[in-house]
Amino acid sequence: SAVISQKPSRDICQRGTSLTIQCQVDSQVTMMFWYRQQPGQSLTLIATANQGSEATYESGFVIDKFPISRPNLTFSTLTVSNMSPEDSSIYLCSAGERSQYFGPGTRLLVL
Amino acid sequence: AQSVTQLGSHVSVSEGALVLLRCNYSSSVPPYLFWYVQYPNQGLQLLLKYTSAATLVKGINGFEAEFKKSETSFHLTKPSAHMSDAAEYFCAVSYTGGTSYGKLTFGQGTILTVHP
Predict the structure, then answer these.
(1) Per residue in B70-96, pLDDT tens?
(2) Checking DSSP bridges between strand A19-25 and strand A4-7, what pairing results, if any?
(3) Closest CA relative to residue A30, chosen from A87, A93, A73
(4) B110: closest chain A residue by CA
(5) pLDDT band at A56, cuts 50/70/90?
(6) Closest partner residue to A104 among B43, B101, B102, by Cβ?
(7) What pLDDT is recorded for position B3?
(8) Which of A49, A51, A55, A61 has the most CB atoms around its CB within 10 Å?
(9) How far is B44 from chain A (nearest CA, A)?
């Protein structure tokens, strides 16, 4: 199994600003993903973080709003840009091969 | 397209009673199936997974699930509930190949409450 850490664990931000969330895996993995969990909701896939190439976004999510980097096989970042209160959610990264293991999440509140 | 339906957004049991959380999936190809647990203010922890080996899968904390292709189900059970099992449980499905490999589609979640 993979052990995944995320930073920050939580943040309170003002609307119009941006926040970059970091995800670190303790071993090299091919697959890394970013999910969003809105209050009281299930998880929705934002994008696949591809190492060495542009991320692949799911329907309803765009690169300008959620730019993602994946510089190597153990690290990825997700930026939430030009935030609004609707972006208040838990953002989770996951990694693994046949099984996906999750980080602890970043709890974001936008005022 | 794949989808997951969890029957019952809330399930309440007494301590020591059987836990049964229902999950039905829809997938056009053989799926991988997962159960995750989320405790308050924490991330998701993998309970167990089905990846086309044995249809009865045993996981952590005494949980198990049975893959039934004919019923397109993957229900989660535990013979005897413990207070510490109170949490939200998510069933998820992923494709086994192609460009969607590894992507998880989640059910809506079931909140399990355990009464003393």
Answers:
(1) 999 999 999 999 999 999 999 999 876
(2) antiparallel
(3) A73
(4) A42
(5) very high
(6) B43
(7) 87
(8) A49
(9) 6
